[in-house]
Prior knowledge:
By secondary structure, the protein is mainly alpha-helical. It has one domain (48-196): Orthogonal Bundle (Lysozyme). 53% of the residues lie in helices and 7% in strands. It starts with a helix and ends with a helix.
Amino acid sequence: MQLSNFGQSFLKIFAKLFRPATSSGSVSASSPSASSPVSFSSPRSISETGLTVLKHYEGCRLKAYRDSVGVLTIGFGDTQDVTEGMVITQEEAEDRLERRLDRDFEPGVRAAITAGMRQEQFDAMVCLAYNIGVSAFAKSTLVKLFNAGDIQLAADQFLRWDKAGGKSLKGLRRRRAAERALFLGANAAYAIAAGDKTP
Length: 199
C-alpha cells in the first residue's frame, strides 16, 4: 500500500512537470516570439566605405585653388570660407570635411529622404550631395524616385549629374558611376574600379 501511494505521488509530480501548454495562445513576455517588431533605423552618418569613395574623387589639396567652374576650393573639395593663397594642413582638411558632412550634408540627405535607407544608399547620396549641393540634391528626380520606392531608376539618376558649366566632364562621369555602384551595394574598391574605368 505504501508503494502504491508513492507511485501515485510520483505520477502527480511527473504530470505537473510535463503538463502541455494551455490552448489560450498566450506567450510569455520573455519568449523570443513575443518580442515586438524591430523598428527600421536609417543611417545617420557616412560609413568608412562611403568616405573612401568621396575622398577618392574629391582628392585633397592643401593650398586653395579654383575648381572647374572657377570656385575657390581647398582640402577635400571644400568651398566654404576659402581665400586666395590659403594653405591648410592635412589634419585641418580632415576636420573641415568631417565638420561639413556632420553639419550640412548628412542632415541634408536625411531631411530629403522619407523612405528607409540602407547604409550604402545613404553613403552614395551623401557623396552626391557633397558634390552638387544639398539644395540641388533635395530637388532632384533621384530623390523623388527613391522616396517613391523606385530604387533602380533612382540609381540610374546618378549618371545624369555629370556636367559642370554645362559640359559633361570625365571626372564627373567616373564619380557618378562609382556612386551608382556604391548605391547598389558595391564595396569601395569595386565602386572606385567601376568609376575609374568609365570613359
